[in-house]
Automatic annotation (TrEMBL):
Family that this chain belongs to: Belongs to the monovalent cation:proton antiporter 2 (CPA2) transporter (TC 2.A.37) family.
Domain Cation/H+ exchanger transmembrane residue range list: 17-376
The organism of origin for this protein: Pseudonocardia xishanensis
Name of the featured protein: Cation:proton antiporter
Organism ancestry: Bacteria, Bacillati, Actinomycetota, Actinomycetes, Pseudonocardiales
Pfam families: Na_H_Exchanger
Length: 398
């Protein structure tokens, strides 16, 4: 009973933070702070290091499910046709350029003794917080027009490719098991695609799905949650392969539901952004080692600068000829924004004992700083689109 009481107390504090964050932004519309930053800050406040109103261990399973929803929705937003276009090809080239730069820089830091776990730190510098960025970009009309496709492709590459690398090099400890896990995700994606053929127009199964997708049954949402929980149960060590699976499942679900994509998207937004995703971000705030950041603030600034340079600098060069200078700077700022994967990588390093606590805390703090600063600067640089361009559909959001 005591454990249940602790979990309820923690959920109450988290719910208060989650409810007050959008209210604060609504009362102060000019406050240039993304909601995720308020959730993380609220987690620090109610967590054991400050007020002690909530315990991260009490809500960890729900936080893992929220993390899965972050990547499921990120994969759901991606228009896979982008990778057959110029935007997708340039995004892949830019990510590999970031990876090469990150390996060189972090290798130097390892030689100096600043970094211990060089692989997760290097990968953290190549990530993009697409799931966090999409609501910000959508609210500021940055997914429209010419630049929208490049922003979505760059963000997707900065999320999918690091996840693949994490699953292979850091996922389970046995690389062959990790590769088999990746294969299982591919098989699952194929099965989902084939299952779509079973739902023939006029068939009994399709009729049941259509009739029971609303009101009390919510069958499509329930099966999506079932799929996500299945993926999260694959591993007991931080569920990295399940994170990959959640991202791929989101991409497959987008095509699988066909004309019902908009309906399912609304349901996923309600379940994810209304409940589970805020729990993950508040939980992440509670786990940040504030003392380590206070003891070594220069590490935070170092990693922040490296995130901007390593992930952002290639965008200034790779997109020459496709975007003008202002748009390339916006792309640099957007792609250098990182957080959820940084939190995951820091957690891995701490759990397996390969990452120094001060580096884990500084990486998460630097990721928070990118979310706080970089999207705001990108929005400031945004110019109003001409009236005729405002009617164009959003790239990657159908």
């Amino acid at each position: 009973m005591e454990d249940i009481g602790s979990a309820l107390d923690s959920l109450l504090a988290i719910a208060a933070v989650a409810a007050l964050a959008p209210l604060l932004l609504g009362l102060m519309p000019r406050l240039p702070v993304p909601q995720v930053v308020l959730l993380l800050a609220g987690g620090m406040l109610v967590g054991p290091q400050v007020l002690g109103l909530a315990s991260p261990t009490a809500v960890e399973p729900l936080a893992d499910l929220g993390l899965g929803f972050v990547f499921l929705l990120a994969g759901y937003e991606i228009d896979q046709r982008l990778y057959r276009q110029d935007a997708g090809r340039r995004a892949v080239v830019a990510w590999f350029a970031s990876l090469a730069l990150a390996l060189a820089v972090v290798g130097g830091l390892t030689a100096l003794g600043v970094v211990q776990a060089w692989v997760p730190v290097a990968l953290a510098l190549t990530t993009t917080a697409l799931g966090t960025l999409v609501p910000i970009l959508r609210e500021n009309d940055m997914l429209r027009g010419r630049i929208g496709g490049y922003l979505m492709a760059g963000g997707a590459a900065g999320e999918l490719l690091p996840i693949l690398a994490i699953a292979i090099f850091l996922g389970i400890g046995n690389r062959w098991v990790a590769l088999l896990s990746l294969g299982a995700v591919v098989v699952l994606a194929v099965l989902l695609a084939l299952a779509n053929r079973v739902l023939r127009p006029g068939g009994r199964l399709l009729t049941v799905v259509v009739e029971r997708q609303h009101e009390t049954s919510q069958i499509t949402l329930r099966f999506t949650v079932l799929l996500l929980l299945l993926l999260l149960a694959v591993t007991e060590r931080f569920h990295l392969d399940a994170v990959l699976g959640a991202f791929v499942a989101g991409m497959v679900l987008r095509r699988w539901v066909g004309t019902g994509a908009r309906v399912l998207e609304e349901k996923l937004d309600v379940a994810g952004h209304g409940f589970l995703i805020p729990i993950f971000f508040v939980y992440s705030g509670m786990t940040i080692d504030l003392r380590a950041i206070a003891d070594a603030p220069l590490r935070l600034l170092l990693f922040f600068g490296l995130m901007v340079v390593v992930r952002g600098l290639p965008a200034l060069l790779v997109y020459i000829g496709a975007l003008d200078l202002r748009e390339r700077v916006q792309t640099m700022l957007v792609t250098a924004t990182a957080l959820p994967l940084v939190v995951a990588l820091a957690e891995i390093g701490l759990r397996n004992g390969t990452m120094l606590p001060e580096n884990a805390a500084a990486l998460v703090g630097a990721g928070m700083l990118t979310v706080l600063v970089l999207p705001t600067l990108a929005v400031v640089l945004q110019k109003p689109e001409p009236v005729e361009l405002q009617r164009e559909p959003e790239h990657g959001v159908r």
